[in-house]
Amino acid sequence: MPPGLDNLKHIVVLMMENRSFDHMLGDLSKTNPNIDGINANLSNTDTAGNVVKAQPLAQFQSQLDPDPDHHFPAVDLQIFGGNKSAGRAPTMQGFVRSYFNQQQDVKHSQKIMYYFPQNKLPVLTTLAKEFAVFNRWFSSIPGPTICNRAFAHYGTSFGKVGMDLFYANEPFKSVYDRLISANPKRTSKLYYYDQTSSTMEIVNLLQHQPELFGTYGQFLNDCERGRLPDYSFVEPNYSDHDGDNGEELASDQHPDHHVQAGELFIASVYNAIKGNPDLWKSTALLITYDEHGGIYDHVLPPACTPDGFVASPNDTGTGMEFKFDRLGVRVPAVLVSPWIPAGVVVDRVFEHSSIPATATEFFLGDYDQRSPREKAAERFVERRDKPLDSTKNLLSLDVMRTDCPDFELG
Amino acid sequence: MTVIKVPRPPESAFNKERRVSSLLRTQLEHLQEAEFRLPARDQTNIYINAIKTEGEAAEYIGQVTAKLQAAHALKGRSKVKGQTSRMPAIAAMAEKKATGNRKRAAGKSKVKASGRRR
């Protein structure tokens, strides 16, 4: 077994908010052609008939206001360009039109095509270049936050395509429940930023199992003291608010929150793990985004294994039912570990079901009571209890790296 | 080893008066659903439709999160209390019987005193 997998004791997932791959990492294709990012041919047509190219003009704040629509009907327009015929295929030609629908401003609607030059996002782009970046990590549903985050916790959204609540007593346990009720018992924790930011989507878990939760301060403490659980899920700060130590800036990168605050937060999570040498050599950190937030991406979302649920035409708001048989828009995803060589680009298709699939199979092995979608999902960390497919193992180095970057927070 | 400096956003980035996004609005609704399952005395009585800004939303979210955790902790404590008191209850029953026998033997007034204590 490769030493990276032998040493692995902890998986940490940080899920940010509402940015597409092209918007955040698309510029990297200029320096690494293996990364499927922005090229000169990418464009949408606006409602005045102008061809709008993808341009490196994204700003940290005040540009995507109002918040681009990313509910199911809007994403349907973004992906299919308004085509509702049977047998339609994705074109990714409806982003500008969708943004125009919000305030009928042609010039403003063009901003949905803007992306960040890599020097503006030193943390995320450095991690993507230094470790493994995923060319094909898609949101699980062409829809908004809540249903997509559900896939990261449960491997399904239980038939939901919107922002509805998820109650207990659903057929599949959360990944946290699976781990803490296993025999032998495993450990797992959800770290929200603070009590005032709290948790998103899994209020039912907060209500019934608050012991699963900790704050980001506890995460930092657990990292420092080497008490991190087997599996951790970290949530950013979802709002600007007053905290015990003064002003707390939202770090989720959800428009119109400041993107640099999210950069600092990502760097802080990385530093906390890297700051403890024992933890650093035994941890894999995945950084991803729940969905694209209505922002342009050029890669066509592929078909996927249906998860057995069907959303009605009324629920989708498109007049068409949805069988959970295709993925949402592509999002950034980066896997960090000192056992990953620099410059790895992963071309396999991942989505958020890959998160519970990886944690469950790595820590528990075979586990039957899961959605068909999750069972079919690719893992970002290979199992130790099965013969290894070395072509899929990302923690592939024989010797741990000592040249990994450090972040100095401003 | 490369050291990368990560700039801090300007102070002007902070705006707790920013209007609540649909995401935060959803979080408020989810927490309110959970709050409504708490005993009435533990509810905030905050009307969430009146919440307009991120700062106000955060205030409500923080209060309800704390209340949910406190309610669960209380439930846990009373559960533990119930579980641990079972054995003493059995012991108390045995003691009561024994005391009753002794008290019957000792006289009526002490039985009443024992009854008041219960």
Task: Give a written overview of the molecule.
The complex is a heterodimer of chains A (410) and B (118). With 410 residues, chain A is α/β, with parallel strands linked by helices. Helices cover 28% and strands 14% of the residues of chain A. Chain A has an 8-stranded mixed β-sheet with strand order 7-6-8-1-11-12-4-13. In chain A, strands 2-3 form a two-stranded antiparallel ribbon. Chain A starts with a helix and ends with a strand. With 118 residues, chain B is mostly helical. Chain B has one domain. Helix content of chain B is 65%, strand content 3%. In chain B, α1 runs parallel beside α2. The longest helix of chain B has 53 residues. The N and C termini of chain B lie far apart (73 Å). The C terminus of chain B is likely disordered. Chains A and B meet through α6, α9, α11 and β15 of A and β1, α1 and α2 of B.
Main sheet attributes: strand count, strand direction, barrel closure of chain A: 8 strands, mixed
Rg of Cα set of chain A: 20 Å
Q: What low-confidence regions of chain A span 5 or more consecutive residues with pLDDT below 50?
A: none
Radius of gyration of chain B: 28 Å
Total E-strand runs of chain B? 1
Content-based structural category of chain B: mainly alpha
**Largest sheet: number of strands, sense, barrel closure of chain B:** none
Question: Percent range for helical residues of chain A?
Answer: 25-40%
Fraction of residues in β-strands of chain A: 5-15%
Count of separate structural domains of chain B: 1
Helix proportion range of chain B: 55-70%
What order do the helices and strands of chain B follow?
EHHH
Strand order of the main beta sheet of chain A, please?
A: 7-6-8-1-11-12-4-13
Query: Which blocks of ≥5 consecutive residues of chain B have pLDDT under 50?
Result: 83-118
Element pattern of chain A in H and E:
HEHEEHHHHEEHHEHEHEEEHHEHEEEHHE
Mean pLDDT of chain A: 96
